[in-house]
Amino acid sequence: MTQALNVTAFQKPAPANETKADWQSLDITTLSADLQSAYHDYRTAQDIANKRRKTFEDAMSAKLELPAHLALAFGYKFGRLSVAIVPASRPSSAKPAMSLTDLVKRADRR
User: Fold this and answer.
1) What is the share, in percent, of the chain residues with pLDDT greater than 90?
2) CB 1 within 8 A of CB 63
3) Long-range contacts for 83-91 (Cβ within 8 Å, ≥24 apart)?
4) Per-residue b or e along 28-50, where b marks 16 or more CB atoms closer than 10 Å to that residue's CB
5) Where are the domains of the chain?
6) pLDDT value at position 93?
7) Band of the pLDDT at 19, cuts 50, 70, 90?
8) Other CB atoms closer than 10 Å to residue 70's CB: what's the count?
9) Contact 110, 93 (CB under 8 A)
10) How many Cα atoms are found within 13 Å in the side-chain-facing hemisphere of 79?
11) How far apart are CA 107 and CA 62, in angstroms?
């Protein structure tokens, strides 16, 4: 059974003075061997979790009747499930990866 949502109840404008973190991709090959190994173990576990999360999100999204221009977004911070109605296509904000050394240099300049 599908359920229709009141889409306007979930939409709100972002605060004008919102401060955003400056996220950087880290080049994993610049890490020590032990950190690379620990990261590899984490990614293996994360891949399993991602497959299970996608199964859950697909099943939940299938229950809703959203217009084609909207999609359901999920958040999992602090162990809580959060959802938001967002535009179906959002531009990517991906940046190229940087080395650990460059990241430390950048932090020292702040």
Assistant:
1) 45
2) yes
3) 83/10, 84/10, 85/5, 85/7, 85/10, 85/11
4) eeeeeeeeeeeeeeeeeeeeeee
5) 24-108
6) 63
7) confident
8) 16
9) no
10) 0
11) 43
